[in-house]
Amino acid sequence: MQTLKPSVSLIRAKSYEQEALRESLTTLLEPLGGIAAFVKPGNRVLLKPNLLTGSRPTKECTTRPELVRAVAQMVMEVGGKPFLGDSPAFGSAKGVAEANGLLPILEELNIPIVEFHGKRYQTVNDNFNHLLLSKEAMEADVIINLPKVKSHMQLTVTLGVKNLFGCVPGKMKAWWHLEAGKDANRFGEMLVETARAINPTLTILDGIIGHEGNGPSNGEPRDLGVLAASSNVFALDRAVLEILKIDPLQVPTIAASQRLGICPELSEIEFPNLSPDLLQIEDWRLPDQLMPIDFAMPRVIKSTFRHLYIRFIKEPMSAYSR
What we know:
This protein is an alpha/beta fold. It is built from eleven helices and eleven strands. The protein has helices spanning 18-29, 65-77, 93-99, 103-109, 135-138, 160-163, 172-180, 184-198, 233-244, 252-259, 297-318; strands spanning 8-12, 44-49, 81-86, 113-115, 118-120, 132-134, 142-146, 148-152, 156-158, 202-212, 220-230. The strands form two sheets. Strands 1, 2, 3, 4, 7, 8, 9, 10 and 11 form a nine-stranded mixed sheet that branches. Strands 5-6 form a two-stranded antiparallel sheet. β2, α2 (65-77) and β3 (81-86) form a beta-alpha-beta unit. It is globular. The chain starts with 7 loop residues before the first strand and ends with a helix.
């Protein structure tokens, strides 16, 4: 029996303006069957953007609100019921969403935002059965993964697979850096198993403006002019590496997914719109220097207290300053 090749739709897109972006998304999703191929009437649809931080709202560290709005509207038009969720490194999903201009859109469209809570789920790899995942994500009918193209000082680059680490709730992420970070191979496998367990229905990657250099938050915006979409997050990440001209072996998530046999080769991927070679850029800036993935215990404790301070003290106090 012949196995269908995974399909990755790639297009040029230059604008976040509402009408232009909607047209781009329609073109992007058309060869995949449109949004209706993924969302059925009545489905509860998790929109999982990158809500890394609220501290640099003009530096393209997070998924653009305009993209979230456009995708949410498309979901609602086919009868889906979208909600937004993430587990930021610092603070709450609502606090980071507010800092990045998302709350007016969510209020306008009457879309709830949820904080993730952990529950243990079976993973394919027995080495990671103690991994806690968001029950809000796991219990959604449909997950639409909305990552941002960014360089990353620990993982070289962060795309679709890494964005799903946000489905590990709260400060469990810092503890995973402590537990698995001393071995880049193991950490990459943990991220891959997280993505495989979450199993997003559709990934739409925000690459109109990326974030290059010392990401995920300390780099700078870079016009890239790309949107990508696929039901196969591993194929999508592999294709985008070709656009950025990054060796897959430099990226722990890609290297791990290749070792595990779940990342297709470029020759095994269908590109119904543009192929990666037509979108390549020559000078995407990677981090000046890679940092260790592991967090020492003092850093985990400091990170945990910073998260708790922002979420339970700083964010609530800011509400009184309005």
